[in-house]
Structures are given as structure tokens and as C-alpha cells.
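Worked problem 6 (solution included).
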Amino acid sequence: MDRSNGQRVYKIVMLVMIIVIITSLATAYATYQYLIHNGINVVAKDDTSLSGLEFTLARFRSELEKKYLGEINDEELIESAIKGYVAGLGDPYTAYYTKEEMEEIMQETNGNYVGIGIYMTLNTEQNVIEVVRPMENSPAEKAGIRQGDIITKVDEEAYSGDEMDEAANKIKGETGTKVKLEILRNGETLEFEVTREKVLISHITAKVLENNIGYIAISDFDGGCADEFETKYKKLKEQGITKLIIDIRDNGGGIVDEAIDILELMTNRGSTLLITANKNDEEDVTKSTKNPIIDMPTVVLINEYSASASEILAGALKDNEKAILVGTTTYGKGVIQELHQLSDGSGLKITTNEYFTPKHNKINEIGIEPDVEIDLSDEDKMNLNLTDEEDEQLQKAIEILKSEN
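Solution. The predicted structure is:
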């Protein structure tokens, strides 16, 4: 699963004193014990070192039992230790999830969850949590949260970018409850109180534009996206479209296979769709296995928030000369994560591969450049009610397709 953005929502109750001590000195042993209890094979390369960690842990545990004012919860200690251990890799996309967090991930992947309805991403340059956009008709949109907002606090607790998972998880909760967000917008600090609701996610928006141009916007690549895309396309085809715009602006990613399935609808059998490389630089090439059902002039709209699976789609269509890209350079998340569920229901998301376009162009931390660069003004980017006529990127796409014979 690849959730970027992406881009992509989970909780943990952490004891500050324990995090400082356990994470720095005892996480390796705690992780070892936890994985052993959950049926994961772990081989210690240095038994003496492991014994030293066990001894150190025992010493600190003894001191905590003697002096710590509160109650000690072993389960929380272990989960916090593993969180810190995995975070020590320094990879913002590799993470450990508790059983409760995994349940929420699966709910979201299946297209519904309880929350306020926002897509968020990790802004790696500033190490902050940035709102990609609120979902249509969501509590967040109704409250006035906008694209580009920086979430600095959730219920009075401050969060940095590398704590996005914890912050996103805290934003979720039971239907009808409220969450307070502190937002940084253009240097101004704002506060919002938003009521959580069950949010049903629709991946695809489709309509017919002028000159028989079909328009399909993909909000994410979660489960069912490709099937919904095909269904919506066929309906547009029945309405007589002869040209197509695919809008993946602000799409932070999702499940890689969903993007591949959409590419199967648009590329020739045998075309290279994706190249991935593992830690040993061993490459795997994904090729199209079907004949395309979409064969018409196509423009893909991209921007700086198009990430991960969006970049796979855009890169493959560009390299296979199946679409013209219009907009701004994409986010640059060119790594793939695998999500492994452990026997107790918890999970480990691991960055396992870097991916490249069919022409072997690097994406990670670089992004994909458009064929035609058109940027929106800051004002237009913040305008959630921007009309088609005011959308300069969309209008450029229409102009290009009008010139196609």
C-alpha cells in the first residue's frame, strides 16, 4: 500500500519520560521481544549486545518502578518503544501501527472512515503537516480549512511533520465529537473546531466539457479507484466524448496497483508502465498486459501536490506518449511502501523500493515536469470555488485538445 502523500492517519498515547529513555536505550530489545511474541523471526547478530540492552532495560525498569509517580503500562511501553525504533530509521514513510491504527487504515483504504475529511501530506522541506485539500462537502471544507494550511496543533498538542501519523490519527474519533485544530495560514495563526462525521470517499468526478471533451478527476488511488475510473469513462464515452482530461492535481497517491490498472486501460500491450528497484538495486519491470480501451487525445493535469501513485500514472503516460502533462512539477515521492500486518493486528509499513518512469527517469525528491508549465496564482490555489473558466490550467488543457485533429 502506498499512501503519500500520498499521500497519507493514526494514533498513539505516548509517555514523554518513557519515550526519551526507552527509545534511546532499549527499543531494540523491546522490538525483539515484541516481534518474537507475534511470530516474527528475528535473529540477533550479537547475543552479547542484546544481553547488554536487556540489562540496561532492566536497570531503567527498576528505577521507574521505584520512582515513577504514575502507573506503568507494559503494552504502551512496548508500542512506544517500537514507534521510536522504527522512527530512528529517519524515513518519514516507514512506520509502525498499532492494532487500532491498522483498523482505521483499512477503513480508509476501503473508502470510508470517521474524521473531518482532509488529505494531508508531509512537507519535508519545512517538516510540517500540510493540507493537500479538504474533501468535497466534508466537515473540514465546511469549517473553512483550505489547501496549503499548515496544521500545527491538534487539541492543543503540537505536532511536527514527522509526527503526521500521530496527528492524523488524533484528528479522527467518534462521530459527533469535536476536534480543535490550530492552523498556520500565510503567517497567521487560526483556530478551528470541527465536528467529526463519517466521511464517504468517492475517488472519481466525471463530466463532459465543451467540444466533446471528457473530464475525469481522480482524488486518490484507494481501493476500487480503477474500477470506478473505468465505469465513469465508459459513461462519458456513451455521451460522445472524443478527447479526455485526467485531473490528478492534489492527488497524494494511494495503492500502486490501482494506478497500474488505470494505465492498463490506456497503454499498448507490452508497454513498460513502471520500473522499481530494491535495496540491492535489483530491478523489476511492470508491463501492460492488455489492449487499451482508451485511445483518444489526452491531457493530464498535475501540480506540486500530485504524488506517489499520481506520479506513476503521469510518468508512464508521458513516457509512453499517451498524454500531454499540463501544470507544475509534481511532489517527488518516488518510493513505495509495503504494509505488513502482524499476528496481533498491528502493522509495519516499510519503504521497500524506489520507482522510476518507463524511461528510467528518477522521481524521488525530483518530481515529474509538465510538458506545458502553467501555474495558478496563490489566490486561485486557495479558492475552493474556482470555476472552470477561472482555472487557467484546465483552460490550457482544453485549448490543447481543441487543436488536436
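Discussion: Residues 47-67 form the longest helix (21 residues).
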